Amino acid sequence: MFFFRKPKQLLPKAEQDFIVAAVKKAEATTTGEIRVYVESHCSYVDAMQRAQELFGSMNMHQTENRNAVLVYLATEDKQFALLGDENIYKLAGGAEFWQGAAFKLQSHLRNGAFAKGLEECVQELGKVLAIHFPFTGTVNENELPDEIVFGK
Q: What is the pLDDT of residue 139?
């Protein structure tokens, strides 16, 4: 007989719901898309390389306005990355904006406040998306799912 250990839950259900609600709220005022990807270990030395791989494999570069953003977190390795597609990266202010958003997220992560940090980061990203890619009042098609994607 084989016994399998139940995989460790990376985020409790209540925290998952909290983050998904933040994504839905952030996307309500924009045509932009935000995805959150959480795994325990980063398979690359550099979290940005992993985020770039995931961005492509989740087809985030295929949004109509090239305005998708990925928030990547490797909980056990204590790594994260924020990756915006070409249009939102430039319009948000380039490296300065993204470094500032990363610094704010990092301060929460250092304290173990993953859900709060992700929620605040998603809200900040949603604000900049709404400025540059506002919801126009016509059908706001949700091009990418809002749920958190969990890796290994």
A: 61
Taking the C-alpha atoms of residue 92 and residue 96, their distance in angstroms, rounded to an integer, is 9
Tens of pLDDT, residue by residue over 91-111, are 999 899 999 999 999 999 999
Q: How far apart are CA 112 and CA 109, in angstroms?
A: 5
In order of 25, 40, 151, the CA distances from 3 in angstroms are 41, 22, 22
Q: Give the pLDDT confidence of 114-129 residue by residue, as tens digits.
A: 999 999 999 999 999 9
Structural domain tally of the chain?
A: 1
Tokens 């390389």, located at residue = 49
Domain that holds residue 32: 13-134+144-150
CATH number at residue 121: 3.10.310.50
d(CA 103, CA 91): 19
DSSP state of 147: S
Contact 89, 55 (CB under 8 A): no
Q: pTM for this one?
A: 0.91
Is 104 within the bounds of a domain? yes
